Amino acid sequence: MNRVYEIITDTSLDYKDKRHLLAAEAENSLPYVKISEKAQNYFSEGILCDLFEGHAPYRPRYILPDYQKFLQKGSEYLNLKPPQDLFEAVNALLIIYRYVPSITGYPVYLGQVDELLEPFVLAAGEELSEKLLKMFLVQVDRVLPDGFVHMNIGPKDTRTGLLILKLERLLKHAVPNISLKYNEETPDSFAVEAVKTALEIGKPYFVNDRELKEDLDPVYGVASCYNTLLIGGGSFTLVRLNLKEAAKKAKDFQDFIQNVLPDAVLAQAEVINARAKFIVEEAKFFETSFLAKEGLITPDRFTSMAGYFGLYECIEHLTGLKLGKDKEALDYAEQVLKTAKDTLESIPGAYCYGTGGRIGFHAQSGIDSDIDVTPGVRIKYGEEPDIFTQIKTIGPLHKYFNTGISDIYIFDRTARENPEGVLKIIKGALKEGIRVFSFNTSDSEFIRITGYLVKRTDVLKYEKGEVLREDTVKLGAASIKNNNTEARKVRIIGEGSNQ
Amino acid sequence: MKGVINKIIEVSFIDGPGSRMAIFLQGCNLDCLYCHNPETKKYCRNCGACVEQCPAGALTNLDGKVTWDNAICQGCDRCLEVCPHSSTPKTTLWKAGDLVAYILENEVFLDGVTFSGGECTLQADFILEVSKKLKEKSNLTVFVDTNCFLEEEKFLNLCQNIDGVMADLKAFDPVLHRKLTGVPNELIFKNFKTASRLGVLFEVRTVLVPGLNDHPLEVKNIARFVADLNSYTLLKLIPFRNFGVKSYLKDVPSLPEEKFFELFEVATGILGSRVYGKYIK
After folding, report:
1. What top-level branch of life does the organism fall under (chain A) (predicted)?
2. What 8-state DSSP symbol labels residue A34?
3. What is the pLDDT of residues B138-150, one digit of tens each?
């Protein structure tokens, strides 16, 4: 019970942190879900990692309720009738968010909020809507203080979407994370507003709507960091594979492709399936969730996720080539990803009905304790080539990932003077295959860690030992130190030559 | 035809509308007191003064010709500091066709290209060839950032074959102009009118230098001149900063913020929203 006592008496944690950790401690008093010795070895070697999901999972890691259906039908469990105006709609959403399970305890998906609220906003008029949406956003930031809480807007231009962007620029909150689904039909005027917002506060992301609709599902959402999953479903689990560590076990590149990687991927799939089965069969999640009973989620919209990271170091270790610098590195990178994906898809994914019975392929963004290993398939921070080469190197790798991938670009402050120029680059990047384009400015008060945002001022407070509302700040502070986040190359060199 | 290029910035947000590749050409015909990159003024004379100073060993003197190895250069710019001739050993020679191919590789990310410098119009023939080839193969626009101190005929020809001119007006007052740049501004005004008439004078840019052209009357005259030209050209006001300056102005402090906004208001009073610019601290 030592650990329980430690948690209870830890002065860097507040009440909610302690409650969360104590629950995890209780879960972890059970043995780990049944997995083979081989899989266990991969865990102890640091090749596989379940991102602290717990030994005996009792809820899916990511859930994306169908909030549209909720607003249309209301909820018997929550004793809520379908909302009739903006007040009731905002109230209903804020209530249901508290009832969406996840690993952190906070909902990772807030819905397509512009689409959900647009009819109510149009009826309520500009002034009232702005006031209510402001309260809604303040409420989300204060009550759900977690950088993985994710809101979606777009691709259509809406009054609500514009108001959200305007308010976010004003409020400067780290929460929620925001994604703009972007496609050819998104008007430039709306996209430019989103660019202006992202240049101020590091969000929204630009998401390649057309590609994800085709590759994943027409009704998808972006949750947590940048996980693309089916609305009305989600993902049971995310188990990740460290490509850098796996590469160290191989004699050479061929050995890696033919033996080491397939073996590790199969062990990864085994763990993922064991965890998904436990949630469905032992914890009987769907039988106990009102979201399932009321049809806001259905098992046929769920999947699981296999995450991959450290591709940069994997290629460097096995071939001596650097992704983004040496052209041949890209061929090796594609071979690695194709092998991993083919292996993963060679076996059934338990209860992965949402992605055709196969486990989803995901570029994992790293966690705070990772040291010297690059997230997903990104180029190592500080080693990025010019922005065009970076996009053209990473773009072809995004097509493999149906359940989430992103790349981060840092512009200098001159980008703020020319959001149209930034939009042109985003459009180009999406054409080159980038699925989630995240960007920020080098002087921003916000730091994009791996897939979530923290405020610089909060990191400083945390380092001074203050207890903070946002749980993601602690993760961010550690990640900045361990992953050289601040070394990301700034794009666009200073002022023009001729003043 | 080959161009002497000082550097290429793959994407710039401050050299014209949208996302643009900025291509800085070597060589200048003015001698501005506040020049922020004096290394772009002259061609390398192969004097070799920089060779021994290079900490990376990226410079060598081969048969009286200074050569630069980009692969080992650390970008410390020590060579620029020690150059006695306002030049650089780091220029590269580009064939027009190669430059066009390089630009087109990145076409999907760009609205166009902007030639800057130095004074890019000194290599007007090179710009014309690049522009012609580029327009055969893409919809990219070509802009030049220029001091407009070029023979009228050549300038006219250039303007007829590009999409936009961003023109520096260093000073309105002829005496002040000569003091600031070493040349008169009569020809420059003529070329402004030519570009304006052809509909390509995208913007006029003026750096406001403390004690020299930061007088309300000077700014009023510049704004009036722009207003009289047409109804579309923008005026960008830029506060002086001593970054990179080598003349006596290197010890002059930046233009104070209040002064900048006072002058900004003077210009706005005449041109309205056509004036823009930002005070950078």
Report:
1. Bacteria
2. P
3. 999 999 999 999 9
